[in-house]
């Protein structure tokens, strides 16, 4: 095991971090582009390397020496586990948590497995399927906005930002409407840094049990949905095995709505804080796609890219990350790197809409990015068309961000629209 980081370097993801991670990352970037810190994930603290520079982030996100192989990952996590010295030997934190059941999917695999899995999923999740969803995304958005009472306070996070993406992903997969609340509940447990390993494993078990039933029902009654398309997808005569199918649906069901929900709420907050930009977009809606790219760069929906580990030593500047080390790439930090984005703290929709890493980079770049952008385009266009006045219903300083390792999203965003 590596020598543990000094005590002053513990707990990068302490509760106060989430309220202003940009200040923390700005300080870290001033000290270098890669940092050894303790990072908590799945109720365990791990000795890890955190990458904060843009060029380094892009390079490592595409570096084949960094692995995401689900079969090897539990052993690497155990080797880098940082025990809680204050915890009794029989309590959580004293020993590495048991690895949860998590069959291989394209997010946690390397080539050639990743290549095969992404190709199969790409057959089921095509741009044609995404574009076919536009009319009912627009209808669903209208229905949600119809419920907003002019001048009355409501929570945009709960009633729009979360509600629309879960509706979209649910319908994409063929999930019954009455199970949407279960998906949100399970996901909230899984993404909460403070949740225990037992709570997370229980949520995983419930989710996998539901998905197993969904697959069984689609086998007997196929539909025009992605689960059916995944069951039918073939590559050289073979398709997804049962474990890969379960894990792929799990991936789409969770990552497919959380990022979009956070993009919507953070984007609305940016426009509330920059009313001149809000009015400009209202008068020139053709600028909305470019504005969405700036929402993603300025305060993106993901804090850290998903976990990776080094298969060989990797040199990053003057730092060598050893073999079998945990690596987290900070997407939030990379997108505020002044070396790539002049005036990175400035919200600027005229900034060239290219280069940010909000959806990752390399072979693991988010397959659902076009759908997220489509949902964002529809929501912002309709919000701007229908409501000429946006006001926070609470003091700006009272807004809080979720305590989640990977995701960057507001707990609530109380508004009044008219």
Task: Write structural notes for this entry.
With 418 residues, the protein is an alpha+beta fold. The chain has one domain: Cytochrome p450. It has helices at 21-31, 54-61, 73-79, 113-124, 127-132, 134-146, 156-161, 163-173, 180-191, 197-220, 226-232, 242-273, 275-283, 288-298, 331-334, 369-386, and strands spanning 34-41, 44-51, 66-67, 154-155, 308-310, 314-316, 319-321, 326-329, 390-392, 414-417. It has a 5-stranded mixed beta sheet with strand order 1-2-8-5-3. Strands 4-10-9 form a 3-stranded antiparallel beta sheet. Strands 6-7 form a two-stranded antiparallel sheet. Strand 6 and strand 7 (319-321) form a beta hairpin. Helix 9 (180-191) runs antiparallel to helix 10 (197-220) and helix 10 packs across helix 12 (242-273). The radius of gyration is 21 Å and the shape is globular. The termini are far apart. The relative contact order is 0.17. The model has no long low-confidence stretch (mean pLDDT 89).
């Amino acid at each position: 095991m590596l020598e543990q980081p000094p005590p002053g370097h513990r707990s990068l993801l302490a509760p106060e971090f989430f309220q202003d991670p940009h200040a923390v990352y700005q300080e870290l970037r001033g000290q270098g582009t890669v940092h050894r810190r303790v990072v908590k994930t799945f109720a365990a603290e791990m000795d890890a390397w955190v990458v904060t520079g843009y060029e380094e982030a892009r390079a490592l996100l595409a570096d084949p020496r960094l692995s995401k192989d689900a079969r090897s990952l539990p052993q690497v996590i155990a080797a880098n586990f940082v025990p809680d010295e204050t915890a009794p030997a029989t309590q959580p934190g004293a020993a590495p948590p048991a690895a949860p059941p998590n069959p291989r999917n394209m997010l946690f695999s390397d080539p050639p497995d990743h290549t095969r899995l992404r190709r199969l999923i790409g057959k089921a999740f095509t741009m044609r399927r995404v574009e076919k969803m536009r009319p009912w995304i627009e209808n669903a958005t209208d229905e949600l906005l119809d419920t907003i009472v002019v001048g009355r306070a409501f929570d945009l996070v709960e009633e729009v930002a979360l509600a629309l993406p879960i509706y979209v992903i649910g319908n994409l997969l063929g999930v019954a409407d009455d199970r949407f609340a279960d998906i949100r509940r399970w996901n909230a447990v899984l993404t909460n840094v403070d949740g225990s390993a037992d709570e997370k494993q229980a949520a995983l078990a419930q989710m996998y049990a539901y998905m197993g039933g969904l697959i069984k029902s689609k086998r007997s009654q196929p539909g025009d949905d992605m689960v059916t398309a995944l069951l039918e997808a073939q590559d050289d005569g073979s398709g997804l095995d049962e474990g890969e199918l379960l894990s792929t649906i799990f991936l789409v069901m969770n990552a497919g709505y959380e990022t979009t929900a956070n993009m919507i709420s953070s984007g609305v907050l940016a426009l509330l804080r920059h009313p001149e930009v809000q009015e400009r977009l209202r008068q020139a809606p053709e600028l909305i796609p470019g504005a969405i790219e700036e929402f993603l760069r300025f305060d993106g929906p993901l804090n850290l890219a998903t976990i990776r580990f080094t298969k060989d030593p990797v040199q990053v500047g003057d730092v060598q990350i050893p073999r079998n080390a945990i690596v987290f790439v900070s997407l939030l930090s990379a997108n505020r790197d002044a070396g790539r984005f002049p005036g990175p703290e400035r919200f600027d929709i005229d900034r060239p809409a290219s280069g940010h890493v909000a959806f990752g980079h390399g072979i693991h770049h988010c397959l659902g990015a076009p759908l997220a952008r489509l949902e964002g385009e529809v929501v912002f266009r309709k919000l701007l068309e229908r409501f000429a006045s946006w006001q926070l219903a609470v003091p700006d300083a009272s807004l809080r961000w979720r305590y989640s390792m990977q995701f960057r999203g507001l707990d609530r965003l109380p508004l009044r629209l008219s």
